[in-house]
């Protein structure tokens, strides 16, 4: 079973993402802020991480930049953000994000992206 970390400080949005991905059969862990996400990513064996751009403690961007090279090489990173300008997308991708999803998004869109990434 593929393992996914969902890191977002908005409880309702995190719950929506978790419910959507659990329905697809993925094993999910959650983080409420960037520092917790970083710690779990460095400790855990995840296939994918969905990181909110704007979180307390560390932003999603800071999390990606702080990951060890080994962790970055072994995980797919999705940046989830309301900052949907092209320059924001490029900053996230240049930092090491593999994919970029703009808020608002539909659960169907998220499901399709995750299934494509982990296929």
From TrEMBL:
PROSITE patterns: RESPONSE_REGULATORY (PS50110). The keyword Phosphoprotein applies. It holds the Pfam family Response_reg. SUPFAM superfamilies: CheY-like (SSF52172). Gene3D superfamilies: 3.40.50.2300. The modification 4-aspartylphosphate is found at residue 52. It comes from the Bacteria. Residues 3-118 form the Response regulatory domain. GO terms for biological process: phosphorelay signal transduction system. Keywords: Phosphoprotein. PANTHER family: TWO-COMPONENT RESPONSE REGULATOR, TWO-COMPONENT RESPONSE REGULATOR ARR22. This is Response regulator. It comes from Salipaludibacillus neizhouensis.
